[in-house]
Amino acid sequence: MSDKEHNDAGVPVGKENDRKPFLRDEGMTDENRRLVNNGITPGVAFGDLSDWATKAPEGEKLVSTAYADRVEADLAYVDNRPGVKKPDPILVADNVTRRFGGVTAVDVNHFEIERHGITALIGPNGAGKTTFFNLMTGFDKPNSGTWEFDGRPLKSVSPEHVAKMGMVRTFQLTKVMSRLTVMDNMMLGAPVQPGEGMLAALFPSRWRRYEKANRQKAEALLKRFLLWKKKDDYAGSLSGGQRKLLEMARALMSDPQLVMLDEPMAGVNPALKQSLLDAILSLREQGTTVLFVEHDMNMVRHIADWVTVMAEGKIVAEGQPKTVMKDPAVIDAYLGAHADVDLGDDSVLEDSGDGDESDASHKEGE
Question: Which of 55, 192, 302, 323 has the most crowded Cβ, counting Cβ within 10 A?
Answer without folding.
Answer: 192
